[in-house]
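P-type Ca(2+) transporter (Stephanodiscus triporus), 1174 aa
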Amino acid sequence: MVEELKSDSVDDATNVSSVGPLEVASGNANANGDSTPNRGPPQRPGLAELVASSMRSLGSVGSAIVHAVFTKYDSALDAPFAITPKDLGDLSSERTHWAMGLLLDKALKNLPPTLPGQEESLQIDKAQIQALVKRIGTEEGELDERHLKSSAHMHDMDLAANALATVILRSKPEEGITNEKSDIDFRRESFGTNAITPKELDSFLKLCWEAVQDFVLIMLICLGIIDIVVETTIGLKEGETCGHCWFEGAAILGAVFLVVLVSATIDYQKQFIFVRLSRSLYETNTKMVIRDGRQLSVIDDEIVVGDILSVNAHNLASIPADCVVLGPPVNGGIKMDESSLTGESVLITKNPGDVVLSGTTVVQGSGKLLVIAVGINSVAGKIKARVYEATEHADGDGLDGDAKSPLFVKLEALAKKIGMAGTAAALLSLVVNCIRGFAIQKQAVGDVLIEYIVVAITVLAVAVPEGLPLAVTLALAFSSNKMMKDQNLVKTLDACETMGSATTICTDKTGTLTTNKMTARAMYTNGTDFSCTDPAVALSDFVKTNKDCPNEQTLDLVSKLIAINTMDETTVDIDPDGKIISSTGNPTEVALLLLASTIGGTTYQEIRETTRGRSDKGALSEFLVEGKQFQFTSARKMMSWAVPLIQGGYRIYCKGASEVLLARCNHQFANDVVELNDASRQGILRVGEMYARRGMRTLALAYRDLPDGVDFEAKSDSVLNADGSEANAVETNLTFVALVGIEDPLRPEVPEAIEKCYEAGIDVRMVTGDAPNTAVSIAYQAGILKDFHFAHGTDEKIAINLKPNVLMEGKIFRRKVYRIDENGNKEFDQTAFDKIWPHLRVMARSSPDDKLTLAHGLNQSTLYTDKSACEQLKKEDNISVFPDRQVVAMTGDGTNDAPALKRADIGFAMGIAGTQIAKDAADIILLDDNFASIVTAAKWGRNVYASIQKFLQFQLTVNIAAVVTALVGSFAYAKSPLAAIQLLWVNLIMDALASLALASEPPTDELLKNDPVNRSKSIVTSQMWGNMLGHAAYQLAVIFFLLFEGPGVFGFEPGHIVERELKENSTHYTFIFNSFVWMQLFNEFNARALNGEFNVFKGVLSNPLFCVILFISAVLQVIMVQFGGDAMHVHEDGLDGELWGYSIAIGAGSLPMGQVINVVYYLFHSCCGKKEAS
């Protein structure tokens, strides 16, 4: 395992010579034709020069054959192609040599007729290409691995790629396709367009329709219609006119319209925010293609099959379609970052004939690519189509998720219970009134039945919390806007709350837990290991403050080794604090240049500019030709740069794989040059192995002084390169200086964020494509892995020392959680998964499909119901299983992460590194790609849940008091003292404002000190029930006193007499309405406390919005009472000052009542607890 890790990391870390168009020429023959090293001024050829260079390199016989096929054999532009989009898509999917052979073989059988006079040459060329097909094979396993790595096979794949371009796709590697519209249109018809239809935005009407599906709104619509029909038809007595009789029903429907309008508008605006972000990215997605021999800049959507793309690492080109690399390699070929599709962070070398997938990125080198699949026929396009059409599980994998968030499930269940209770109360009112009126008072049915029905409708209207849907929408919208400032772009409102219920976060490593910037974190020099484990401390600072710090000469030598022996293409801008401002080129070299600039006395730019034979600026530029560069090759696994010395001779600086360079060293620099014996060599190698086990990429630094007249072309008689070829003599007998360990470091804020997650009862699992030891190193530093996850008696934190199932590689995970059914189909095994996931903390070498499986398995697990298994896990491994189904949050940045992001309860996409497809599939976009922002989202989510609980505590208190008041009023006087329009005012306007006020309080860290809320746990807690029933009892006592004793105490006519006999709105009922509202306004303070807190004013002044809304609500109430008249069913003159004073005093009584309720609940709860304990 160690050797494999070393090989992977070194091959990647040392491949720093493949540069793009900005590379400085390494040498030319002099005027006399000698091979003396010669470096001219920096050459910056354009793409046209690179294409011309590539054309001149097509000098091999094979290339001539392929080129001759195209020049001799031609067909009409509209002749059908010999292959289909599916055939090319198969090549993209398989990405093997035999898939290429199979494609060429099939194409040769279907070639269209030639133009007259070309038949004979076609048959000859077919035979030549058929011979090529036989050499590269058409079946898996047909050729042995040794042959596949041979130069002959690589040459054949080069020919195959050119054959595919010229013969099959009728394109020219040096000229591309024609730029004629007819040719481009025909290719689009034949192979499809590269423009994938963007996800269609939901229309405003559709969003309105979705909003109106709420159970409460459906009840209100029915109630409003019934009220209007009854009041305007059968409710009218003979000769009576309607007047304003329809107003209450219309007001109910108007309330529904307002709620739907607000909800739909918020969702509609959210869509366009995301569209604007996407559009700005789209307009910058342009690529260079070659058509008619000229370079053209086209947007990605205009690229067609057969186009020749010119790509280079200078602008980190993202590949817009599936392509095949064309040869010969330009400037050493290209390296690709395929992590967006595979999850692997190791760069992949691409040779001619290899397939490059859409969505991947060129990070090193330059070259030409033949487009073979576009749009929905490309690998990334297929995934994008699945995301947009929401058919990612249409293949029957059974990995479907829940349609609604936990909060909305609870609210819907609560609304149905409220609706049932309201219906029961309305029926009770109707039955009691009918018994009293018809059986006891012997009234005529026609005279009072309609009145009884209207009263029952009023009771039902009182019971239904009209403001609840609007309150929830406002709370979510307010929180989502606040989350935007905390780097969370919320695409769907319910995602705010869902994150608050999260029990598990499955996170990526690269860019989320780490900085996604390679950084030197360890160095071995002078016989001392300097390993910096604090992510907040730079390695250079750690070394220079260490008691064993090397002397200045050693540090300067390390700086020179790096600054001189790195490519011009790699640059880094550093601020005075040693932080990177910007960088280009190879990430590993960027890390080295940062180290070089901060560990020595000068920056890498100063070293380069003052070094003869390396500087291309000022007076020293004329001596640039004296330097000699040996570029990196995979055969050597190292690179070198020789520069002349002032005293004569040269010094060659080398860097490369530690095992390669150490084998060539016979001295080491330890404050002076000393002999390197075998013991010292083995000690350095052990340090390198330790770095590798910690997930670092290791590089050795060495040098050698050479005499004047040295032959740079001489080969060694005894030392061989990694591939067995003869080594350069000047790159032997080196002096070892340092060993550097480079890694993608942890973000400094991550450990604290993960610790907060564990305190909040949220498990964190890391899913990465990296090797196990790399994954373990980061997970341990982050705090995902603790000491108890490792076997007893082991000190080294490496993968092999972990307890079973704590870490699992993707291939092993897939083998364990999938079984083959009797029909031979792969089937997910939930039982097997449940044995793994409680232990699992890290998944290494995983694929995006593993993320999908993990999200589904966690979400559907019912392990919590197996009490014996849970007890065993707690006893043996100290693992606590959350007592409900898991709520899963998943992060992703790659195209292949999209299905997992949609399957998880909440998907987080990376705003910086994330692909467009991943962002489309996600619920929330992390604008800073930072794990700490996920914790912020969790805190806001819990705040949303708490805010809705506060509102429900406030709203249901209103409903309990109002329903009982309406019932008692109907029993006593066959009429509620609170009119339906007044209760609608309280439930909709006043409560909506209250919801915004209660939702406006910022979250606190206290929210993360409790466990997540169970899916099955009621949103209304026992403490909330105590608060609601206590305050409702106080309000009912006040209202009943005013209803029955108020006329005698305050000296006004009873309301039921005034309204029945005089047909006027009474002062009595207006006073009751006003007192009722003021009790609600003061109760907003009590509603801020969910857990019996005594200080209900804590933090109120730090929330100015709460104070402003409370003031606005009070002003609106004054207006409604004094000027509402018939519209608000209040007395035309309102109330006098005395009654206003009583109303406000009665409302203020809610505050001391809240303290009484807290004391009673505490005593009751304590007594019950003691009884249960006894």
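Residues 218 and 482 are 31 Å apart (CA to CA). The chain has 42 helices and 30 strands. ok done for today
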